[in-house]
Amino acid sequence: MASLQILRLLIATLKGGPGKTTSVILLAIALARRNYNVVVICADTRTRGATDWVQESLRLGYTVPFKLAIWEEKNGPLSAFARTVEQQTGADAVLIDTGGEQPEAFAHGCLYADKLIMPVGPMNGELRRILETYRHAAAINESGSKLDISVLLTRVPQAGKGKAREAREDLSTDLRAADGTPDPDKPYALGLHVLTAEITRAGAYDEMYCIIPDDVGEYEDLCTELVGPGNKPGTEGAA
Ligand SMILES: Nc1ncnc2c1ncn2[C@@H]1O[C@H](COP(=O)(O)OP(=O)(O)OP(=O)(O)O)[C@@H](O)[C@H]1O
Ligand SMILES: [Mg+2]
């Protein structure tokens, strides 16, 4: 069997509540159902979104198909904690949920992860919030990390159309000056990789909050984009 690459994913933005926790949990469910051994690390020491989601789901009688590890400051740096969790659980997918305004946890998440996904809404005001997150992540890459950075459009009124389409175009165009100064009108025009999957603004996602739904909606498409179609390689026949 070909050796499987571990998916080490940080889903984070330093500002706003664009759907980080929702994205982590629904993607974790999708991966687990494709036979990945998934661990979600709750590194949001303030709102504890992922922890609450799991605990509430268990209380309601749902089976949670992934493991949860709760990081606290007393556990030491998040990057070392994540590595230990990965080894101890034999996970092949580790997803980290961080809170906003937690630059230190964010930086350590970036050091551990191979991939950073920044969820963002397509409205101008929300797009601007990505700048600080990107700056931090890019600085970490400049100091030698090889973090693959992408944007996930969330809460879009209509996938592939209108605001979503405009936001995709703007984010993926690089309008920075030669010295790297962002464009004053569109500071988020940074030549970013925008994931093809888009998450619509829908009450259905709100209803999935704190349960384990049968259907994770467009997060299934995101899962396919990240790991390819079908089950974990080598487990195609498994349940
Ligand atoms: N695509 C969506 N459509 C509609 N509602 C959504 C969507 N995604 C998330 N929500 C809702 O928005 C709220 C915030 O989502 P979530 O907790 O995932 O954001 P967050 O980025 O983790 O926020 P925080 O920074 O507070 O941790 C929740 O009530 C959630 O149900
Ligand atoms: Mg959250």
Task: Note down, in words, how this protein is organized.
The chain has 239 residues and is an alpha/beta fold. The protein has one domain (7-155, 203-222): 3-Layer(aba) Sandwich (Rossmann fold). The chain has 9 helices and 7 strands. The protein has a 7-stranded parallel β-sheet with strand order 3-2-4-1-5-6-7, sandwiched between helices. Strand 6, helix 7 and strand 7 (193-200) form a beta-alpha-beta unit. The longest helix is centred in the N-terminal third of the chain and has 14 residues, at 20-33. The model has no long low-confidence stretch (mean pLDDT 95). The chain binds adenosine-5'-triphosphate (ATP) and magnesium ion. Adenosine-5'-triphosphate binds next to helix 1, strand 6 and helix 8. Residues 162-183 are annotated as: Disordered. Residues 10-159 form the CobQ/CobB/MinD/ParA nucleotide binding domain. Pfam families: CbiA (PF01656). This is Chromosome partitioning protein. Residues 163-177 have a biased composition (Basic and acidic residues).
Question: What can be said about this structure in brief?
Answer:
The chain is an alpha/beta fold. It contains nine helices and seven strands.
Write the layout of secondary structure elements.
Layout (H helix, E strand, L loop, with lengths): L6 E5 L8 H14 L4 E5 L6 H11 L7 E4 L7 H12 L3 E5 L5 H10 L2 E6 L3 H5 L1 H13 L5 E9 L5 H11 L20 E8 L2 H6 L10 H9 L12
Parallel strand pairs: 1-4, 1-5, 2-3, 2-4, 5-6, 6-7
Helix pairs in contact: 1-9, 3-4
The structure holds adenosine-5'-triphosphate (ATP) and magnesium ion (MG).
Organism: Kutzneria buriramensis
Protein name: Chromosome partitioning protein
